[in-house]
């Protein structure tokens, strides 16, 4: 059935006739690709050059791969610490989101209890509140809880921001799965936790990837929350660290470009490997399927 | 055995109740403490006077009144106007460019995946990285853009793009566009891919031109994607913060011309480098106004836009 459908689709796609407008459209794609790549290539190229050379001839090519800027960035500043902090914060927050989101989504999708709809609406309300705007109350609250200037505070705020959307996506997905599967496991004597971990988790694994990307990328890329909550440079995330770095090395453009390249690198590498999953994850909710 | 059979139904047994509570509680606690409570606290904060981060007396709607009077009226009005400009420009350019790129990829015979990945690439980059990158590119003395302009004798390109009050906001919008245009493009493309091929086949057999197929079939059926792009652009534009902050600083340089409401909100709460004009009450009032404005705007927008969507 699905093979037949995809074959029919392929057949139809193969017949898209050439129209004059295609010249313009394909031209637009080429211009867009240049617009995307030229700045990135320029950034990488400049990261191999020293500041004085960049000032005298910004557009010249680098003389080979000179890594001294990278050595400077990685040894003198706290760049590796920033990267490590970002990794810790993003991974922990995403793990909490996936754990809480799958559990709550499973409970809401599978059990018909008194407050089911009310709790579902509660998460909907959470989804509509932009955490950014509650910055001052959050600041004071974290201060009172002793979580200001701490990675744990950051992790909890990020997790809280992404949980409502995760609950929604998981609830919707689990509702669409046949209930016979978990009921069969129950008849075989599985406990509720076993039903969840042995039957549900493998089934929702693909969605877990999408929700994971959906939660993790904005956390990794975020700037505002660490800007407000973190003062101690040894706890800063990379996006906050890069602004500190720009203040310290403002005159050394070679180092600045190396820093930018390093900060962008982890996600770009992942994107090259997993681009379709990234696209699906980041447009989750905006597109169906 | 019989008990287990009961459990097989979807109704909750006594045995299952603790499990349900255990499953839902962690998600609820985190959402309550770090999302709902701060949001409601924000409402109350806007009704109090503040001395730095110490709450003073209840003042009713005084903070909101102060926003509508001198000297904050000018700041607030200017910031709001900038957000409107950002929204309208972003929306017009982003939607049309996104649509062109989506249609181009949709009509490709080969390399769809590749171009999809290229178009979407800047979307994954952090706004902070993008902002700093362009700040260096557009540097009037050492930047590659001005050097390009000198080399090829293009005076129009050799401008203080980020240093001129009338120009800086539009330069920021251009940078935002560079970063974000892939998003609407992919959303439109997904919309196009979900259109039943038979409609397009049938139109082609009936002798419709490719332009007519786009205008009469593809474009109208993209209405749901259009709604999503419009709403997300609206929310994003009115919460615009990182780009103006990184490039123009908290005071919205040059000359306050890049101040947005989120920037004003941040500046009033956490101060500037040079002056310590912190007023949490005013900042919270802006937060409340933004929250209500974005909420109502998004709700009304999706209501009206959904009405014009057609079922396939």
Question: How would you describe this structure to a colleague?
Answer:
- The complex is a heterodimer of chains A (289) and B (312).
- In chain A, 76% of the residues lie in helices and 0% in strands.
- Chain A is an all-alpha fold.
- Chain A is globular.
- Chain B has one domain (72-311): MetI-like (MetI-like fold).
- Chain B has helices spanning 2-7, 17-45, 62-67, 72-107, 112-124, 127-137, 144-151, 165-180, 182-193, 197-205, 210-221, 223-238, 242-248, 261-270, 280-307; strands at 48-51, 54-58.
- A two-stranded antiparallel ribbon of chain B has the order 1-2.
- In chain B, a hairpin with a 2-residue loop joins strand 1 and strand 2 (54-58).
- The longest helix of chain B is centred in the first third of the chain and has 36 residues, at 72-107.
- Chain B starts with a helix and ends in a 5-residue tail after the last helix.
- The model of chain B is unreliable at 1-9 (pLDDT under 50).
- The interface between A and B is large, with 107 and 104 residues.
Q: Oligomeric state of the chains?
A: heterodimer
| Cα-based radius of gyration of chain B, to the nearest Å | 25 Å
The total count of helices of chain B amounts to: 15
Form type of chain B: globular
| Helix content estimate of chain A | over 70%
CATH superfamily of chain B: MetI-like
What is the tally of helical segments of chain A?
13
Per the CATH scheme, the topology name of chain B is: MetI-like fold
Strand content of chain B: under 5%
Q: What structural category do the secondary elements of chain B indicate?
A: mainly alpha
């Amino acid at each position: 059935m699905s093979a037949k459908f995809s074959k029919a689709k392929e057949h139809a796609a193969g017949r898209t006739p050439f129209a004059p407008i295609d010249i313009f459209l394909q031209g637009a794609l080429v211009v867009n690709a240049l617009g995307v790549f030229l700045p990135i290539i320029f950034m990488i190229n400049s990261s191999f050059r020293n500041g004085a050379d960049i000032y005298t001839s910004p557009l010249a090519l680098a003389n080979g791969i000179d890594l001294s800027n990278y050595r400077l960035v990685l040894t003198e500043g706290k760049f590796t610490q920033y990267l490590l902090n970002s990794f810790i914060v993003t991974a922990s927050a995403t793990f909490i989101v996936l754990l809480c989101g799958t559990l709550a989504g499973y409970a809401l999708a599978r059990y018909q209890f008194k407050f089911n709809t009310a709790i579902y609406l509660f998460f909907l309300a959470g989804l509509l509140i932009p955490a950014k705007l509650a910055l001052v109350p959050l600041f004071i609250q974290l201060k009172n809880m002793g979580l200001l200037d701490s990675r744990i505070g950051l992790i909890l705020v990020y997790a809280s921001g992404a949980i409502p959307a995760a609950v929604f996506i998981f609830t919707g997905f689990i509702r669409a799965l046949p209930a016979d599967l978990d009921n069969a496991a129950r008849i075989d004597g599985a406990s509720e936790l076993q039903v969840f971990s042995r039957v549900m988790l493998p089934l929702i694994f693909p969605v877990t990837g999408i929700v994971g990307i959906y939660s993790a990328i904005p956390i990794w890329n975020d700037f505002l929350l660490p800007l407000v909550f973190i003062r101690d440079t040894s706890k800063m995330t990379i996006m906050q660290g890069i602004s500190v770095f720009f203040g310290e090395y403002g005159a050394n453009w070679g180092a600045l470009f190396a820093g930018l390249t390093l900060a962008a690198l982890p996600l770009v590498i992942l994107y090259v490997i997993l681009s379709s999953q990234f696209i699906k994850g980041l447009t989750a909710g905006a597109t169906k399927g | 055995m019989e008990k287990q059979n009961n459990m097989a139904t979807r109704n909750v047994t006594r045995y299952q109740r603790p499990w349900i509570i255990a499953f839902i509680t962690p998600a609820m606690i985190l959402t309550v403490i770090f999302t709902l409570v701060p949001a409601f606290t924000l409402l109350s904060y806007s009704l109090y006077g503040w001395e730095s981060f110490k709450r003073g007396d209840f003042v009713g709607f005084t903070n909101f009144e102060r926003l509508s009077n001198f000297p904050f009226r000018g700041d607030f009005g200017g910031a709001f106007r900038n957000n409107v400009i950002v929204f309208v420009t972003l929306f017009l350019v982003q939607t049309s460019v996104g649509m062109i790129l989506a249609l181009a990829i949709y009509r490709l015979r080969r390399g769809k995946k590749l171009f999809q990945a290229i178009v979407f690439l800047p979307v994954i980059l952090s706004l902070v990285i993008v902002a700093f990158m362009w700040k260096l590119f557009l540097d009037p003395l050492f930047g590659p853009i001005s050097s390009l302009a000198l080399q090829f004798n293009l005076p129009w390109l050799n401008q203080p793009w980020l240093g001129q009050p009338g120009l800086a906001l539009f330069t920021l919008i251009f940078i935002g566009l560079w970063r974000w245009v892939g998003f609407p493009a992919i959303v439109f493309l997904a919309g196009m891919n979900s259109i039943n091929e038979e409609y397009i086949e049938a139109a082609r057999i009936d002798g419709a031109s490719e332009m007519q197929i786009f205008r009469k079939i593809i474009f109208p059926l993209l209405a749901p994607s259009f709604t999503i792009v419009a709403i997300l652009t609206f929310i994003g534009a009115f919460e615009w913060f990182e780009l103006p902050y990184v490039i123009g600083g908290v005071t919205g340089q040059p000359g306050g011309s890049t101040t947005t409401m989120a920037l004003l909100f941040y500046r009033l709460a956490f101060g500037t480098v040079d002056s310590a004009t912190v007023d949490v009450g005013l900042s919270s009032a802006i937060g409340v106004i933004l929250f209500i404005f974005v909420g109502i705007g998004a709700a009304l927008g999706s209501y009206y836009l959904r009405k014009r969507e057609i079922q396939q």
